[in-house]
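Researcher: We plan to redesign the surface later, but first we want a full-length starting point. Tokens attached.
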């Protein structure tokens, strides 16, 4: 009886072979489940942070370059570390198409994706805000306005309205241009004003319609600025009834300005203009832009970056041929003066003078001996009869000035213009002023030189009229062209002469050679920008 009871409840133990066969099956199922969980986490991270990471990776080179130009190499390297980390994060969550040169981390330890998610939550927004601010300021301002509209409470809005009214009234008493004193004070008036801002402009069909459309865009921009100031002066209750006014007005104004710039890009350049002719508007319509030329062996050696291997970011970018890698000047990332060339009593190299003559660039010295030496020596480059560039070496500066219009009449040039053309262009009024008053050094040349007393009309921003009316606008545009040319000149020196500057054993002769090369590159850049068909003269 006992045996029968045991037989009924007896369960035979599993065979040894069967246990060994079930173990790999269980491990494979666990691995598949773990992999499916990782893929689900990656999909969620791509859905949440994919757009931000894509924006960072796409605009990272331009942001690093802008950071270096504004704040120097140290901060640009710091930003580069963050953008490189963002590239690695994008690859880790399955966005391999953005960075084909990067690979996923393998093998992954337990909890790796959880730590990655924490990094994304804490750092992606901050990195993106820096990139947007450097590369897309209009987008940054639009996003800031949206946050401002959503986050300010009623008390803050009322304080903002009082402060805005006080500032407008203060500027009105000082005689500055301010918004109209009477604006909409209720929600209905603001809605009517916003209808003008968001009005649709029909596509033009002929030249007259194009002009009317451009004028309508100008009116929309004016209405948007009026809407911004009127909205800021409203109380909190009225602001709540007309939401999204700030962001909408800014977005419309930015779009219309971009459209107007595109429409007016080739304005005034008709068939009547001869091939190769240079006009005054070219100075600011085609400003100088310098792009560094990568050279062999330009490696940086900064510290390694988290998640990017043993090599530094600048070295990795140089290895993969990225010309946007930051410059490697260690002591001074921005060159603001010539260190050897035409400093103190050093004469200009004869081969440099010959090369500049072939490019129709004239070196001028204010010294009484006539020798091309010293910090007062300048370089003048004329572009037809429209404008000229005056290049200074200590410090490195470029002045773009209009050339006086030559006429067959015997009317003398106005005295004011002669004085403003002082030592900067070599047109000094007397030997006494040059040697005693100016001390043999170059003097500042007013941006209105060549415009005072000008009888021929000038064109700027699509408008043509006498220089007496548009001269101030043309002068500001020439200052803008001068700033762009100065930046290009300094970047030429920083890019070409950087190795000589970094080498403490480099002699003055070696530094002078590379600085002469940088100057010739700048002159060639100026010639190719404004006169593309220019050919060097025979020696």
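Model: Full-length starting sequence:
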């Amino acid at each position: 009886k006992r045996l029968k009871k045991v037989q009924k409840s007896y369960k035979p133990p599993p065979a040894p072979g069967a246990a060994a066969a079930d173990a790999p099956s269980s491990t494979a199922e666990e691995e598949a489940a773990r992999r499916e969980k990782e893929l689900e986490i990656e999909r969620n991270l791509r859905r949440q942070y994919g757009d931000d990471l894509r924006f960072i990776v796409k605009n990272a080179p331009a942001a690093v370059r802008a950071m270096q130009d504004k704040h120097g190499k140290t901060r640009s390297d710091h930003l580069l570390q963050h953008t490189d980390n963002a590239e690695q994060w994008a690859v880790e969550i399955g966005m391999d198409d953005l960075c084909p040169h990067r690979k996923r981390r393998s093998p992954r330890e337990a909890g790796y994706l959880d730590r990655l998610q924490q990094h994304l939550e804490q750092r992606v927004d901050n990195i993106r805000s820096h990139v947007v601010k450097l590369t897309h300021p209009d987008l940054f301002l639009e996003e800031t306005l949206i946050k401002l509209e959503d986050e300010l409470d009623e008390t803050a809005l009322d304080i903002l309205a009082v402060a805005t009214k006080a500032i407008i009234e203060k500027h009105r008493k000082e005689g500055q241009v301010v918004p109209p004193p009477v604006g909409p004070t209720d929600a209905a008036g603001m809605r009517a004003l916003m209808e003008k801002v968001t009005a649709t402009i029909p596509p033009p069909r002929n030249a007259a319609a194009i002009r009317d459309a451009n004028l309508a865009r100008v009116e929309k921009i004016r209405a948007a600025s009026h809407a911004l100031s009127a909205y800021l002066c409203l109380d909190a209750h009225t602001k709540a009834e007309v939401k999204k006014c700030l962001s909408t007005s800014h977005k419309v104004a930015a779009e219309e300005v971009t459209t107007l710039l595109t429409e007016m890009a080739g304005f005034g350049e008709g068939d009547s203009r001869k091939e190769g002719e240079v006009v005054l508007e070219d100075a600011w319509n085609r400003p100088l832009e310098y792009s560094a030329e990568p050279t062999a062996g330009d490696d940086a050696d900064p510290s390694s970056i988290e998640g990017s291997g043993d090599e530094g970011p600048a070295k990795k970018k140089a290895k993969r041929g990225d010309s946007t890698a930051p410059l490697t000047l260690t002591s001074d990332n921005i060159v603001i003066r010539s260190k050897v060339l035409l400093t103190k009593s050093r004469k200009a190299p004869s081969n440099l003078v010959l090369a500049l003559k072939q490019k129709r660039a004239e070196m001028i010295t204010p010294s009484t001996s006539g020798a091309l030496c010293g910090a007062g020596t300048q370089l003048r480059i004329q572009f037809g009869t429209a404008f000229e560039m005056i290049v200074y070496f200590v410090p490195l500066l470029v002045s773009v000035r209009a050339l006086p219009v030559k006429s067959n009449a015997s009317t003398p040039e106005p005295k004011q213009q002669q004085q403003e053309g002082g030592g900067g262009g070599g047109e000094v009024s007397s030997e006494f002023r040059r040697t005693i008053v100016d001390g043999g050094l170059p003097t500042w040349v007013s941006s209105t030189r060549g415009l005072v007393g000008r009888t021929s009309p000038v064109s700027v921003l699509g408008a043509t009229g006498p220089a007496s009316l548009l001269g101030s606008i043309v002068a500001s545009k020439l200052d803008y062209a001068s700033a762009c040319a100065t930046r290009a000149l300094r970047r030429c020196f920083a890019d070409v002469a950087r190795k000589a500057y970094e080498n403490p054993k480099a002699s003055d002769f070696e530094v002078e050679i590379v600085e002469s090369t940088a100057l010739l590159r700048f002159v060639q850049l100026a010639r190719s920008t404004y006169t593309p068909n220019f050919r060097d003269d025979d020696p």
